[in-house]
What does this fold into?
Amino acid sequence: MRIGAHVDSADPLEEAAARKAETVQFFLSDPQGWKAPEPRADAEALRAAEVDIYIHAPYVINVATLNNRIRIPSRKLLVSHAAAAATVGARGLIVHGGHVNKGDDVEVGFDNWRKTFAYAAESGGFATQVLIENTAGGDNACARRFDALARLWDAVGEYGVGFCLDTCHAHAAGEDLLDVVDRVKAITGRIDLIHANDSKDAFGTGRDRHDNLGHGMIDPELVVAVVRAADAPVIVETPGGADGQAADITYLRDRVGQ
It folds into this structure.
C-alpha cells in the first residue's frame, strides 16, 4: 500500500521526499480558477519518478449543473486537465461529484455526468482515468449521500470511471465509516484512492474541514480500518505542512499492517 500527501505543485518530488511519501497529489492550475493547465518543465522527471502521481482537478468544475455557463466550461476544463495529467504520468484525476442548484432536478445532474463522459468519448475519451470523489455537503449534491452516489453510478459506471473515497467528506455527509468500504464497493465495485482525513467537525454537519489524524472528531482507528479494508493508495490532505503530513503518513504505515 502506497501512502502520500497532497502537496504544493512547485516541486512535488521534493515535497514527497520531505514527507517520505510514496505518492503525491497536487493541482496543475489554480484550484479556484478556470485557466487550462500549462506544460510543466518537470513533466519528464515526474513520469520517471518512483513516486506515484495523482492530480486533483480544480474545485470550480461542476459538470452536473444545469447552468450552461458553468457546465460547458467544466467539461472542457476536465478534459484539458486529464490531458495535462497524462503528460506527468498521473495515475488518476480526482474531481468532485458536483451538484445542481436549489430547485433543479438532480436526475438531470446525473445525466449531465453521463453526457460529460459521452462528450469526452467523442474525442477518444479522457487521457487519464477520472476518479469521482464523494463530497461533504449540499442538499443537491451528486456524490454526498450514497443513495445519490448509486444513481450517479447508474449513469456513468459503464465508462470505467474510478472512485476516490474521502473519509472526512463521508463523516461530514453523515455516512458511517464503520462499513463504508463495503457500501461503496457495493455501488461502484471499486475504490481507486483513499483521501485519509480527520474532520474538525462533528458527524453529519456537512462541513469540509480536514484535520490531522487523531486530532479531530473521527476515531483514527476508523480511518485505519477504512484504509486497510479498501486496500488502495492513500493520500492525506491534512494541515501542518511537511511535519504534520509526515506524522499522518507514519501513523497509517505503523497501523495498517497490524
About this structure: Residues 3-256 form a domain with the TIM Barrel fold (CATH 3.20.20.150). The longest helix spans residues 68-87.
